[in-house]
UniProtKB/TrEMBL annotation:
Its main location: membrane. Cyclic nucleotide-regulated potassium channel activated by cAMP. One of its GO terms (molecular function) is cAMP binding. This is pH-gated potassium channel KcsA. InterPro entries: cNMP-bd_CS (IPR018488), cNMP-bd_dom (IPR000595), cNMP-bd_dom_sf (IPR018490), Ion_trans_dom (IPR005821), RmlC-like_jellyroll (IPR014710), VG_K_chnl (IPR028325). It is a multi-pass membrane protein. SMART domains: cNMP (SM00100). It comes from Bradyrhizobium lablabi. GO terms for biological process: action potential. Pfam families: cNMP_binding (PF00027), Ion_trans (PF00520). Homotetramer. GO terms for cellular component: voltage-gated potassium channel complex. Belongs to the potassium channel family. It comes from the Bacteria.
Amino acid sequence: MSKRLVLSALAQFTAKTAGRNMTKAAYIALAAGIAAMVVLTVAPAYEAAHHWVDAVLWACLAYFVFEWAVRLRHMAGQGRLWLYVSSSSGVVDAIGALAVPIALVAGVEHRTAWLLSILWVLKVVPGIPGLRQLRRVLVLESGPLLSVLVIFLMVVFLASVAEYFLERDVQPATFGSVPAALWWAVVTLTTTGYGDVVPITPLGRMVAALVMISGLGVFGLWTGILATGFAAETRRDNFLKTWETVSKVPFFATLGPSAIADVTHMLRTMDLPARTQIIRKGQKGDCMYFIAAGEAEVELPGKKVALGEGAFFGEMALLGNSVRGADVTTTKVTRLLVLDLVDFRLLMARHPDLAETIDAEAKRRAQENQ
């Protein structure tokens, strides 16, 4: 019985470990290993507890080696061994498992070899969505980013040559060659301003001022390019998520792809917990709601009406009477699609069939509520 339990636990561990993202155990091993590596660099602390520190480091290394071996076996069984080995996650797993042992076998000093355990932090990279988004932005915006990099290098070399020409006679120790002036140019252009190398001639200071202003412009361009790229990627992700939600709403099922895209641009999503009041009777309304998932309850005089997935409400306030006529509350976790008044009118003008459907449903509800 115990053998079956062990095999079952090992199978579950293999299934989880073979996945792309890190498991909780891997995060614990990573945190413990990095903490032990930090203690290793503090001589008094390491001397007082070196047995414990070494034990934690070896245990973490054993875990990552075992994890790597499990993934190799799993991928080999699926016939995708080479695909895994050549992938970024496979390379990171191999580095985490082999870097420290190779250093120790090569004769690197014990405490120095264990510093390579810092490479374990690379294992979290595949599981961070933001980093994958950053990679997409860097690929898509590689052209503009490289153009700004060329501008950066041009300014650095032009400034270093100019300062060498202007300052070499008065400061031969610091500006006696172009390579020596490059340090000043990089520090000044990046606006770090160490102050260890400063031009003293009037023309040299004018060049320094231009370099500092250029540095602000160069890094402003880089920031703007990355911010625009991230904003575009965020809009793309939100559009895809909203498209998927809209396409699942039965009310929009008859619309074509172009119409759904039009609706997707106008709608915004809202996730609400259970027992949250969406609409309060007597308030002025400026939007209507579609239920993408979940359920809401309309409180009418003498009765309550449940609205499920695909239903809509709040349209009465957009069709003439702007005052809400009933309270609406969620009965469970609900995702809503919100259509504002301006977008509502624009959507009705573009899609008359949709307008007729909403108007017919509104008249039917008005008769039921009388």
